[in-house]
Amino acid sequence: MNGLDPNVHQPARLRILMLLSGIDSADFNFLRTTLDLSNGNLSAHTRRLEEAGYITVSKTFEGRMPRTTYSLTKVGREQLDEYWRIMDEIRAGGAAG
Questions:
Q1: How far is Cα 11 from Cα 7, in angstroms, rounded to an integer?
Q2: Which residue, among 29, 16, 36, 27, has the nearest Cα to 77 in the 3D structure?
Q3: What is the pTM of this model?
Q4: Structural domain that includes position 22
Q5: CATH number at residue 80
Q6: What are the tens digits of pLDDT across the range 70-94?
């Protein structure tokens, strides 16, 4: 796939990474609402990104309510930058990867 990382190239995951790239962190409800994803869909995609080391997941409680927040890691930011570099090469008609 021209060197494109499938963990980044998948549309929902790309949207998650893009959103997190512009903020320090976001909670589950914010991501779910903003990206219009189901609970299960968001959970599956964030799990994959966490396994790849692209995001960190923090689980805390506010009173008795669980709160899950997500942040982009340095590796995640580097992979997102690399994704856009490759996409720019593809758009320019060059051989990427």
A1: 9
A2: 16
A3: 0.89
A4: 6-91
A5: 1.10.10.10
A6: 999 999 999 999 999 999 998 898 6
